[in-house]
Amino acid sequence: MNDKFVKVLPEIKLAVDTGKPVVALESTVIAHGLPRPQNLDTARRLQSVVRSQGAVPATIAIMDGQVKIGLDDDELEMLANADHVVKVSRRDFANVVGRGLTGATTVSGTIIAASWAGIRVMATGGIGGVHRGEEPDVSADLPEIARTPMMVVCSGAKSILDLSATLEWLETHGVPVVGYGVDDLPAFYARSSGLPLEVRADTPTSVADLWDIHTDLGMTGGMVVTVPPPEKEALSGSDIQSAIDRAQDQAVADGVRGKHITPYLLEKVKEFTEGASLRVNIALLENNALIASMISHEIANSRT
Ligand code: PSU
Ligand code: MN
Q: What's the domain count of the chain?
């Protein structure tokens, strides 16, 4: 890690150095994934959920060219309301740092920076994956999870993606995918994708045990822990599927491509489900932050 370009909040550095639990949080969901004003409210809420569990939140972003591991409230507000925030995965770091720009890190960008600081757990809503459609489009999240020693706690991925192909990709590249209290891969808005997983863990302790064995075996890559959305807000698979199909058709008709596809589809699905998708999105983000905090305690505890 290069101190010239990277700033770790002292509270986070101290927590990592003394083996206290820390949970990394991404910022693309704030800048591009949720609408205003819910984005800032949610960003704050996620930090307080982590704190309520006695863990330290580390929201990650690039502010005016500096990689920040841990954002204060002013920075969160700036990021939530700024108009020119670059979406940052590995390829974007040098450009955004070099030109002094502001960038929100995706899951991939977040785990790169978090691992520089020695953080081992991150929480988010959904990871990117293998897209459907003609043009090959694989999220940078996947190779980054395969190469970075971080546990990503999420609700699987949205079925705007090809979930079966995403699981295949993760298998090929050696990423364990764990169902937290479930046997099937969650599909973000819906509790199940119908795709069975090989590994189930029912408690934070058993997830932490798996992680410890994974790292003790010398595995260098990450792990995905999938938590279904809370029952109360979860949508049924068929409701959400028709909204997703419509969004997909419209993206093709509008010629949306590359990194703009995910935010575009998210916005359209919200419109087509009249806000129900937003409620489940916020509920699962909070729930995942809670569970990641509990797991991070177990990981930290088993190391001391
Ligand atoms: N999925 C969501 N909400 C999001 C994202 C994914 O439900 O906000 C964001 C995350 O930051 C994820 C990124 O890492 O989109 C993946 O983008 P892409 O498909 O362009 O790699
Ligand atoms: Mn892409």
A: 1
